[in-house]
Amino acid sequence: MKKQLLLFLAFFVSILITEGQNNKGMTDNQKTSSSVNRWTVKAGVNFVDNSGGAANFNTQNFAFGGFPARLNLGYRFSKLLSFEIGGSLNKWKAGGRILDGSVVNEDQNYFALDGNFQFYFDEAFNLFWGADWLEVYLNGGIGYFKIDKGATSANVGPGVNIWFSKGVGLNFDALAKWAFNSSERFDTNHIQYSSGLIFRFQNEDKDNDGIYDYNDDCPSIPGTRNSNGCPDDGSTNSNDKNTSEQTAIVQDTDKDGVIDSGDNCPKIAGSPNNNGCPLSDSDGDGVLDRGDNCPDVVGSPNNNGCPLPSDGNSVSDTAEETDNNGHSKKLSKETSETLTALSRKVKFNSGNYNFTQDTYSILQSIVEVMKENPNAKFRIEGHTDSVGEYNANRVLSKSRASAVRNYLVDNGIPQENISILGMGESKPIDTNLTKEGRSRNRRIEITEIE
Asked: What's the rounded Cα separation, in Å, for the pair 288 and 304?
């Protein structure tokens, strides 16, 4: 028993160390935007196996009688850790059921009250390509159960949540319980299996700035915690709360002359001629991307950004290999457009690189397009919305591009055919002032390259 308790304590120490390291490398904004703070309720049935000897586990017979109910209330502290308290009822009916190796001669009721931590392996090790519909975790905690006189227990066991939607899923748990006073009749080591529905609840955050609406003075505009959920105007006064909505309307965070309400890049100084975003020139040839027919190839302003022809004809060398949009003719125009449309449908949850559940069918369609063009090479660009710190978003966008590449490689696309680039929030395709616009900006762009 002492050895079991030492292992039990080691489990919790490892959880706390891992959780501490995870939070240490995060900024306050990252913790706010990406951490999960949710209440959960589990309701279902349980099966109890106590058919072996007092010190052994055995899976021969289950207790499943009376009203075998299980009800749990949980709180998710972070992506890695949650805590639950729960109760369960069951019964061994007389005749035919085995309890501690003996046939039960009279009904024996079972009652348990448990408090367990959950450590999420899928988040800790980025399992299942970051799928948000599947969670795998390890339970660990203590409990009290009563069959005869009652006993306390150390609890350890695996669990799985399968989410059908953001709020409803299916739960399975297997909890091994070691009794501290295993000499009592019946109140000995046993295994409890549970299954049922799990419900997840979260406070609403319409603008996705990490500040819940009931504490947010600007619930429809992303802001900072220091400004009660409104954009920070750089000053603090007694009128801030009452004038926060007006301040948000006229504010120009990046001082580029474009107010935030009309600025697609509110934290990056840009040009009024480009909706407040920087005027990009990817190839550095002096021709801005928006007017460059060859944005990835150094060219001449006299040839719309493409290299001047070297073969004596009137068509540039690069233009002979590309259509008017700069797409390589190794892919047809229709295929390029299909690939672009599919890649923009790849969606991520805010603040992380986990795919949304409906993204996997889109990724499979992209795999099929790439397999039909085995000689083509592709670049995957990751993009984010403007929620969060600028440099952190560049890292996040590259992680998103990497997540897509990993999925494609795992499904048969050669890794050497794919390069990745993290663009962060620098190239939005919609406003970042609305939830719908930010959702569009959290995207992937896949293009063919030479």
From this structure: 10
